[in-house]
Amino acid sequence: MVKKAYSVETKLVCIEMKKAGKSNEVIKETLGIKNDSQIYTWMTWYKKEELHRLHQPVGKQYTYGKGMWQLSEVEQLLEFKFWGTFLKIIIKH
Questions:
Q1: Is 60 exceeded by the pLDDT of residue 26?
Q2: What SUPFAM superfamilies does this protein's entry cite (predicted)?
Q3: Are 60 and 66 in contact, with CB atoms under 8 Å apart?
Q4: Domain-by-domain residue ranges, the chain?
Q5: Mean pLDDT to the nearest integer, 45-61
């Protein structure tokens, strides 16, 4: 069995769809997600404000001070603001 890698964009769209009240079945069908547990995991990270975890590769756990989180706090905020705007545009269309 091959693990499926989802892009950060897919994960963020999934979160926005769930926030908009879409069912897991609709989200899975629309985005090609295989399992409900993946949606629950991403939503848990969102609720805990751990969005940096969306960037971690398949099968890798977050290690403090490694990877994308090496960006300055300002750079991280700008990136999340960009993706938030991007998602709002996608959800509207």
A1: yes
A2: Homeodomain-like (SSF46689)
A3: no
A4: 8-92
A5: 79
